[in-house]
Amino acid sequence: MLRFTLFFFFLVLAADVTVKRTTAMKVCWDPNPTFTGVCLDKNCAKDCANTEGYTDGKCKGSPLRCFCSYPCSS
Questions:
Q1: Which of 10, 63, 1 is nearest to 35 (CA)?
Q2: Nearest residue to 52 (alpha-carbon basis) of 65, 37, 69, 64
Q3: Taking the CA atoms of the chain, what radius of gyration do you get in angstroms?
Q4: Mind listing the pLDDT tens digit for each residue in 29-41?
Q5: Helix, strand or coil for residue 59?
């Protein structure tokens, strides 16, 4: 029983460390200079990933403009 308890403890500890490492990465945003048309999250994300080389895209602001995201250091 003690072995199982220790194994479970270390499993939870390892999972906690993994979650903290993946969530520690900061996301930076750049305006997409080439995007034209009506900004919808779907077409903005596609344009950012395909033509600009970013990881994702979202429409932000008023009026809606396309912003591309990429991982950056904290």
A1: 63
A2: 69
A3: 19
A4: 999 988 989 999 9
A5: strand
Nearest to 57 by CA among 44, 72, 40, 43: 44
Architecture of domain 25-74: 2-Layer Sandwich (3.30)
Q: Which residue has the tokens 């460390």?
A: 17
Place of tokens 């903005």: 44
In the chain, which ranges are E strands? 26-31, 56-60, 65-72
The residue count for the chain? 74
pTM above threshold 0.70: no
Domains of the chain, by residue range, sit at 25-74
